[in-house]
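Incident log, support desk, overnight shift.

02:14 A customer reports that sequence design results differ from what the structure should imply. Their input is reproduced verbatim below. On-call engineer (initials T.W.) acknowledged and began investigating.
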């Protein structure tokens, strides 16, 4: 049993095991959302259980696909009206140029190895590039003059990054090149990016992502280029609250349909479906509940109308429609109920 820490690896495993990348509709575009888990100490905006959504594009190595994914995330945050977001991008290279760079970086890091935190000392052996992701102030100061991956890209990776930047400019997505953006996962190649804010303290990243051309092959599939992004819902909500954004209240229920007994259940459901088709919110009350308790529910929750359907209403075809706010009721032909409600609503949606 394992609790999933993020969504990209699960998508990559699904593609590898089911050979989805062999589809004639390449590149494959998917999205996901769900609960994720982390073991690290909980902090504000960084919980052990959290909600994450993401998008992935699998099957294309083209730089414009990187820009497309980045632009999707940017547009989501703009439409959500998250203020003061900045996009920071970098290239972490491919395995070939990164291996050469790691030699240079290790030479620099080993000079003051004992001064780094224990996590960074471990990263020096496993993936020294991850040291740039450390939040420790001492480590950040020590690496200020370290060689950067951007200055040591191979020709192919450098060209790829230039084309990503050009595509973002054409898409009118503003960005900042930050050579210290490396992301917190080891499978990234070439493009890496983060969406950042400056008013949530240490938890300044709303989301991010990058290219992971080797992950699907590592998980048993054929080598397949891919790129994706993910965002945490809790942190986006926190950023909106911190900036003074007020969330609109949930729309009130417009109609409660009250079946009196068992026989009217089917007619009540049909009435609910017709109301939904007309753009009117409606639910069917529990057939075991009393009329009185349901009318009290309407009063308490600002429900506009109640429709009572019993055996007599089924026989006559006349439904009892109660206007809760006006405290009046009418007998209305079942086929005219929707028009009646729309005519008597104070605000029509």
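02:41 Re-run completed on a clean worker. Output:
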């Amino acid at each position: 049993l394992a609790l999933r820490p993020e969504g990209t690896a699960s998508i990559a495993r699904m593609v590898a095991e089911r050979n989805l990348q062999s589809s004639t509709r390449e590149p494959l575009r998917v999205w996901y959302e769900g609960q994720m888990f982390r073991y690290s100490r909980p902090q504000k905006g960084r919980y052990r259980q959290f909600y994450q959504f993401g998008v992935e594009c699998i099957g294309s190595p083209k730089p414009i696909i990187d820009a497309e994914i980045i632009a999707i995330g940017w547009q989501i945050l703009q439409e959500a009206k998250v203020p003061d977001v900045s996009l920071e991008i970098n290239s972490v290279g491919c395995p070939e140029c990164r291996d050469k760079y790691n030699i240079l970086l290790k030479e620099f890091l080993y000079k003051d190895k004992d001064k780094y935190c224990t996590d960074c000392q471990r990263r020096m052996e496993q993936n020294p590039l991850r040291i740039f992701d450390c939040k420790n102030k001492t480590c950040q100061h020590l690496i200020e003059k370290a060689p950067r991956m951007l200055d040591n890209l191979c020709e192919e990776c450098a060209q790829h990054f230039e084309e990503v930047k050009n595509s973002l400019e054409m898409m009118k997505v503003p960005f900042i090149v930050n050579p210290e953006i490396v992301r917190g996962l080891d499978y990234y190649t070439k493009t890496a990016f983060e969406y950042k804010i400056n008013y949530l303290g240490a938890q300044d990243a709303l989301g991010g992502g990058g290219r992971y051309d080797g992950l699907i092959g590592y998980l048993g599939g054929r080598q397949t280029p891919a790129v994706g992004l993910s965002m945490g819902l809790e942190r986006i909500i926190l950023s909106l609250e911190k900036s003074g954004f007020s969330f609109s209240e949930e729309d009130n229920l417009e109609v409660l349909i009250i079946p009196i007994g068992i026989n009217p259940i089917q007619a009540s459901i049909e009435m609910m479906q017709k109301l939904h088709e007309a753009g009117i919110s409606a639910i069917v009350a529990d057939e075991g509940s009393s009329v009185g308790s349901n009318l009290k529910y309407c009063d308490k929750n600002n429900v506009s109308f109640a429709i009572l359907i019993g055996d007599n209403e089924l026989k006559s075809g006349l439904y009892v429609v109660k206007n809760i706010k006006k405290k009046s009721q009418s007998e209305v032909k079942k086929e005219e109920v929707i028009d009646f409600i729309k005519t008597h609503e104070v605000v029509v949606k």
